[in-house]
Known about the structure:
Blueprint: H1 5-17, H2 20-27, H3 31-42, E1 50-53, E2 56-59, H4 61-87, E3 93-100, H5 107-117, E4 121-128, H6 130-138, E5 144-147, E6 156-171, H7 183-187, E7 192-195, H8 200-211, E8 219-222, H9 225-233, E9 239-242, H10 247-251, E10 255-258, E11 265-274, H11 281-301
Parallel strand pairs: 3-4, 3-5, 7-8
Antiparallel strand pairs: 1-2, 5-11, 6-9, 6-10, 6-11
Helix pairs in contact: 1-2, 1-3, 1-4, 2-3, 5-11
Amino acid sequence: xxxxxxxxxxxxxxxxxxxxxxxxxxxxxxxxxxxxxxxxxxxxxxxxxxxxxxxxxxxxxxxxxxxxxxxxxxxxxxxxxxxxxxxxxxxxxxxxxxxxxxxxxxxxxxxxxxxxxxxxxxxxxxxxxxxxxxxxxxxxxxxxxxxxxxxxxxxxxxxxxxxxxxxxxxxxxxxxxxxxxxxxxxxxxxxxxxxxxxxxxxxxxxxxxxxxxxxxxxxxxxxxxxxxxxxxxxxxxxxxxxxxxxxxxxxxxxxxxxxxxxxxxxxxxxxxxxxxxxxxxxxxxxxxxxxxxxxxxxxxxxxxxxxx
Length: 308
């Protein structure tokens, strides 16, 4: 056996993505380069690691066992690198954060200066819907999660980072005066556009509608904030959206905030972690950084929200 660390990393990524093309994209390599290294690695075994059926690659049972061993090897290599950096007085390790989809407009600003200060820290940030974020937290797969609604299904601790304001939003074609009206009068005209089930924004919308005794007869369901924004700009309906995700559209007058009784809804963007979690040195350093800098980041990077 004469395989290289590069071959191990490529094989593991192919197993994780179930695709040579996706593995190449995530590793920032060309597809032929990944294919060659994968073949060179597989040629060292008498038992197939993968099978190509049609155009889809399948991992054999033997390949899955090898992938598990490879993952352990890479983790040990990373541990050696982190320990080397720590011995030299540099903070090193991996920081894993799961972020709800709209949180992608928030979390990078609270990470940027920390990552610049600690260049040996490896960041893994997954942006997905609320249900998957909470699942990754419950399974202890991440150090932290960023949410706008604190889950009740898991015991966790939190640090509030930024206020989250949600407004009723539509395109700029219809003119509304500044007097607030009932949401029922507005959604009778056009559909109310919801995010998919499992979304924190949808959960907040549904709670608000119940509080307002409002029954929505016309509604649409879309699976991302970007899709909702495009539908709003096209005039397909209205939606309750976090202010943080529509800054450019408001400034460009592509969308408008519609005055409604009971809005805005105020929650907080909160970083949460499992109660009693044993933090790594990197996680502890990040928490310390946020305690010292979160107010400054909020006031300098998000001051534009004050006009709304």
